[in-house]
Amino acid sequence: MVEDTKLSVILTQKKLIGARLVMVSREIAADGTKLIEELERSRATVMQATPATWQMLLAAGWQGNKQLKVLCGGEALTQKLAAELLDKVGSLWNMYGPTETTIWSTVYQVKSANEKISIGQPIANTQIYILAANLRSQEDAYIPVPLGEVGELHIGGDGVAGATKCSLVGVGFFGFKK
């Protein structure tokens, strides 16, 4: 796995369950040509990166790898970028998770560039709710909206660090006790 990271780490390797984690330095992460070289050298089978990083790789001439599982998150995944990646990789996954949760909260496998790209379904031990927005009373604060209606996204589960209401408009968090 190659991780798109902002850490200034010289290439390190760790043993995982039958896998190897490869973290790259800022210098490599910011240079499309160097990142392509690292992808090829490491023979990565999974790579997590932002859409901006995938765009950088494509602009640097990356030809893709049909064995590669792409995890894309941190910014909105456009249909244009999805179309370019789908032609070059084994599978493409859109990942969503605000800063207040542990990396990702939802996942969605993008199978066609013609489909609307969703944030997907909650990952394990995560709950997602779309609740009524702009309510006037506390009693109404947790009313689910009907399917297809606009509301606020609320996230609960193990990935949330305690009960939080963030400054982002329209996103709330629940800290559930076990």
Automatic annotation (TrEMBL):
One of its GO terms (molecular function) is phosphopantetheine binding. Residues 16-161 form the AMP-dependent synthetase/ligase domain. It comes from the Bacteria. One of its GO terms (cellular component) is cytosol. GO terms for biological process: amino acid activation for nonribosomal peptide biosynthetic process; secondary metabolite biosynthetic process. This is AMP-binding protein. It comes from Amazonocrinis nigriterrae CENA67. The lineage of its organism: Bacteria, Bacillati, Cyanobacteriota, Cyanophyceae, Nostocales.
